[in-house]
Amino acid sequence: MDTDIIVSITADRQLELPPIIKHQIKPGNRYKVSIAEDSIIFQKIQPPQDLNDWFRHIEELGPDPNQPSLQEISEIVKEVRQELNEVRS
After folding, report:
1. Which pLDDT tens digit goes with each residue over 11-26?
2. 26-41, pLDDT tens digit by residue?
3. Which of 3, 8, 24, 82 could hold 16 in an S-S bridge, CB 3.0 to 4.6 Å?
4. Other CB atoms closer than 10 Å to residue 1's CB: what's the count?
5. How many whole angstroms separate alpha carbon 83 and alpha carbon 73?
6. Percent of the chain having pLDDT more than 90?
7. 48: closest CA among 25, 30, 70, 72?
8. Which sequence spans correspond to the domains of the chain?
């Protein structure tokens, strides 16, 4: 069931949640937040039920676009080693 609810932002930039929303959230709940030009969408993250669900969730996420390649990691290690050798000299 989709329902549109209007919430206000306080002077501290906090969301003022109405009771209907407060009853649906609990401490420790996690949400994925999607930001577009004129909207912010909160989508609850469901914890995996078992290890197979967790692995499936990891596969659905796909590869990390920010993960450096092995060559990039090797270059970083070489640079750090050179810097350490220069400091020790």
Report:
1. 999 999 999 999 989 9
2. 998 999 999 999 999 9
3. 8
4. 2
5. 15
6. 58
7. 30
8. 8-88
Q: State how beta strands 40-44 and 31-35 pair.
A: antiparallel
How crowded is the C-beta side of 75, counted as CA atoms within 13 Å?
A: 5
Q: Residue 51 phi/psi, 5° resolution? A: -60, -40
For residues 44 and 29, give the distance between their C-alpha atoms in angstroms, rounded to a whole number.
Answer: 7
Which candidate, 3, 9, 32, 43, places its Cα nearest to that of 17? Answer: 9
- Residue 76 token pair: 């970083």
Give the pLDDT band of residue 65 (cuts 50, 70, 90).
confident
In the block, residue with structure tokens 């290690």: 77
Encoded amino acid at 57, one letter: H
Q: Which amino acid is at 52?
A: N
